[in-house]
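task queued by scheduler; priority normal; single chain, no ligands, no partner chains; default sampling; output format set to C-alpha cells
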Amino acid sequence: MSLQSGTEMIALSFVFNKATGLYGLLAILTGFHLSALQLSMYVYSVIALGIIAYCLPHIRKQTPFQNLAFAWLYIVDTVVNTAYTTVFAVSWYLASGKTGGPTPPESADTGVPLSSFMKAIDTTASTSFIVIFSLIRIYFVLVIMAYAQQVMVQYRDGRQQGWTGEDPELAGKPFAEGTPDGEGYKGKIGRAMLSVGRGYWLGGQKQDDEWAKNVRSKFRSHKVASA
C-alpha cells in the first residue's frame, strides 16, 4: 500500500469519526442534555469535519497546501482527542468510585469486594484499549506526515526546476511572500504551518528522509504479508 492510499484510508476513517459530532449536536434538538465538555467536543468535531472535507479531495491531487493542512489537523486532533479521552476516563473513574449502596459481597478468589474486583477489571481493560488505540493513532500520524513531506518535497523540486523569478532562493521556499502561492490567507497559513518543522516538511534533513522511507517500507511489507 502506498503512502497516498494509506493517507486516503486514514482520512476517510477520520471523516466517519468526526461525523458523530453532527449527530451529537442534532441530539440537542430532541431535548437530550449535553454537558459543556460534551458540547465542546461535538462543536470541535464539526469544525474538524469541515476542514477534512476541504482537504480530502486534494490528497490524490497532491496539492501541497491541503495536504500540509491535513497533516497538521491530524496532529492537533491527536492531541485534542487524547485530552478529551483522558478527561472522560478520569470523570468516569471518579464517578464510579462515588457510587453508593450497601457493601457488596467479597470475591472468593481475591478476598476483596466483588464490585472493587470488577471495577479493577473494567479499568484495566479500558486502559489497555486506550493504549492500543493511541499507538495506532501515532502510527497514523507518522504515515500522514510522511505523505505530506513527500508532497511538499515534490512541489518544491518542481518549483526549482521551472523557476523563472528574479530571486532563485524563493524557488525552494513554498508559500514565501512575493510568490504566487504566498499570496492571501493560504500564503499566511502556509508559512505558519511550515514555520514549525520546516526542515522535515521540506526534506531538509537526511534522517527525516530515511524515516519516511522506513514508513513506506513498512506499508510495502504489510502489503506483501497480506497478499
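post-processing summary
- Helices lie at 3-29, 36-55, 57-61, 64-97, 114-161, 184-195, 198-201, 206-226.
- Residues 114-161 form the longest helix (48 residues).
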